[in-house]
Write a structure and sequence with these properties.
alpha/beta; Rossmann fold; nine-stranded mixed β-sheet; globular; binds adenosine-5'-triphosphate; binds magnesium ion
């Protein structure tokens, strides 16, 4: 895969949300950024946390369908037919699009692609019990091609300006497509030692992968749900200068909101959200200052 390949992805700007550790405020932040951008733009969300998807919980929109991104990624069809084609195959009848849910935000809706099957409250990769299938999902370029096509189709079918991808946490090839086919990456962390250590490991891994693929990405560091009295902008700048192993394009601080500690569904309270300056700032940063609505 070369940079042309990635550049041709979709007309939409793609922003990935990732973290080394779980519970880093990734999904809540994605929902809030979606909210901010959807006031002006057409925004689609992809829950690519295919082992433990949770966007539907943040948006409070019921359970996802069984047919989902996983099905699309593991389709039996031989993709080699499409390798050299510029033409996007017509997947508009594919179940993955029919079954997507729609998130209501004021004045508009955000189409959403579900992460997958729910079993006992945890999303499991359907292929896991089958070693052969697992091999096919986890390795090789098939996953990349399929994800690439999924994004292009999503952007085209839904006429999207932005696609926000909720990636899985940790480090794995399974999550790489979400970090490959995007314009910028926001890396979430809480302020504990393990989060900072893990974020460094993630950045090392991601940067060397980008180098080997000949790609460059804007990377934003987003300390999230931090105590603003302890983790000030100065503290973060010192961390970036002295402890962070790789350069980042920018930082955006999301302070801990008292209201969120007892309420997971930040998205519900629209009036409060309009006032959420940190998320508005983050949306502004990630969107490349392309005009997030003021006020
Ligand atoms: N700014 C904030 N202030 C206070 N609590 C927050 C904030 N952002 C997120 N939280 C809370 O932290 C918890 C984890 O947030 P979230 O689900 O967004 O993290 P995540 O990184 O997506 O986790 P997972 O790895 O489980 O998907 C949630 O209970 C959420 O309400
Ligand atoms: Mg999440």
């Amino acid at each position: 895969m070369g940079s042309d390949d990635a550049g041709s992805v979709p007309s939409a700007k793609i922003i990935s949300f990732v973290s080394f550790k779980g519970g880093s405020g990734r999904s809540v932040s994605l929902a809030n950024v979606a909210f901010q951008l959807a006031k002006t733009y057409r925004v689609g969300c992809v829950d690519f946390d295919i082992e433990a998807g949770g966007l539907h919980k943040v948006f409070d929109i019921g359970e996802p369908d069984r047919d989902s991104i996983q099905q699309f990624l593991m389709d039996e069809e031989d993709l080699s037919n499409y390798l050299d084609e510029e033409v996007i195959p017509d997947y508009t009848d594919e179940e993955v699009f029919q079954k997507r849910l729609v998130i209501d935000v004021p004045n508009t809706t955000c189409p959403w692609i579900s992460p997958g099957d729910i079993q006992g409250g945890l999303f499991l990769i359907q292929a896991l019990p089958d070693a052969d299938m697992t091999y096919r999902v986890d390795t090789g370029m098939n996953l990349f091609w399929r994800f690439h096509k999924l994004l292009r189709l999503f952007a085209k079918v839904e006429s999207l300006d932005f696609i926000l991808i909720d990636c899985r946490s940790g480090i794995s090839n399974l999550g790489l497509p979400g970090l490959a086919y995007c314009h910028c990456v926001s890396v979430f962390l809480k302020w504990g030692k393990q989060h900072r250590y893990g974020t460094n490991r993630f950045l090392d891994w991601y940067s060397s992968w980008l180098d080997s693929a000949g790609l460059e990405r804007d990377i934003y560091l987003v300390p999230s749900a931090v105590d603003p009295k302890i983790v000030t902008t100065k503290v973060i700048q010192d961390f970036v200068a002295n402890e962070l192993s790789e350069d980042v394009t920018g930082i955006s601080l999301i302070p801990r909101e008292a209201s969120l500690e007892s309420d997971d569904f930040v998205f519900c309270d629209v009036d409060t959200l309009r006032q959420q300056k940190p998320y508005k700032d983050l949306a502004h940063l990630l969107a490349g200052n392309s005009g997030v609505e003021e006020g």
